[in-house]
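Predict the holo structure. Ligand: magnesium ion.
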Amino acid sequence: MPPLTVDQALERILENVEPTGCDSLAIEAARGRTLAEPLAARVTQPPFDASAMDGYAVRTADVAHLPATLVVVGEAAAGHPFDGSIAPGEAVRIFTGAPLPHGADAVVIQENATRDGSKVVVQEGAIDAGHIRPRGFDFREGDVLLSAGRRLGPREVALAAAMGHGKVTVRRRPRVAILSTGDELVPPGSRPGPGQIIASNHLGVAGLAELAGAEVQMLGIARDTRADLDAHFVRAEGADVIVTIGGASVGDHDLVGPVLEARGMTMAFWKIAMRPGKPLMFGRLGRARVLGLPGNPVSSLVCTRVFLTPLVAALLGRPAKGERMQQARSAVPLEPNGPRQHYMRATLELGPDGTTLVTPVRSQDSSLLAPLARADCLLVRPINGPALPAGSLVPILPLDF
Ligand code: AMP
Ligand code: MG
């Protein structure tokens, strides 16, 4: 059987994902979280016809012939309504955000009015109707403005608060447990001895998981022995996703798959037609999904972006709408692609005509973190894609994190 394509692998990973449970949170604490229920407005906004300018609230009939002189009978400011009513020949001094007084149906901006003691003279050409924000101009009580699965960014929390919600029901953050594996690995900040390497991938994987909305649990570094791997997995109890880094190919020291299978994991696949990232393992262990990432830094981060980010989104109940690929024009000719979908690290620049030009970085080796950090995007080449001339439109996945 040929290895699964990226799309097939993602489909398997997302199969039957159930969203996590719910948390009730104060709106002040809800930014970055995902709504578990649709949100309907509890109030009408604005709640009253409000002045959009500083000026004078008047009756249209009184300013049909200009100039007109009116008696100023009071004042209305934001938070301080005028509680009377305007009779013919009267006006109320009004400020932005104040409710329009009863009887008034227009606002003359102060630039078009001259105050004279208790009177105001409305000058010629002063009237246009645009200075009132009518009640319900933004939304009305009962309007459903935010759907379940919507991520609460800065705009959404502001809107939810304006809609009258002091608390919102959001999805529990999916718990992603991350394990680094390898006899050669030492923690960040330590000086590697002979043959040792600083473990770094877990920080990139954790960062992406958190950006996607997960809560991360670090399981540390396991040695390449069955006993040590097994001991580390004990702590993953209760995780929604277990992510392992390294030890997932078929070398003698690649024990992650066998140890997890001995713990009860059913293996779904462990190879996909993707570059970088061929030895990607996926399985189910109880209610947890297990994602076994390759150890090479670029492979592990690209696979995290391509598979873990959508998995966390699905666990949060976000609508599955597939990856929105952007497009750019290749600045250089591209060689034909082989049998694996290739995620090439690439930089972006603005071309002379304003279109975005994409250029693959020189070295595409999957062990190189520095070019990954320099890149702006991944240029995606499909399986067996043909050679393309410079100027061709190609799909890109932004590295906007
Ligand atoms: P493996 O998949 O275990 O064969 O690892 C492939 C390569 O990635 C090896 O050179 C490892 O040293 C390196 N590697 C594995 N895990 C990590 C990690 N957590 N951080 C950085 N490099 C790693
Ligand atoms: Mg290893």
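The longest helix spans residues 297-315. The pocket of magnesium ion (ligand 2) is lined by residues 181-182, 246-247, 253, 295 (CB under 6 Å).
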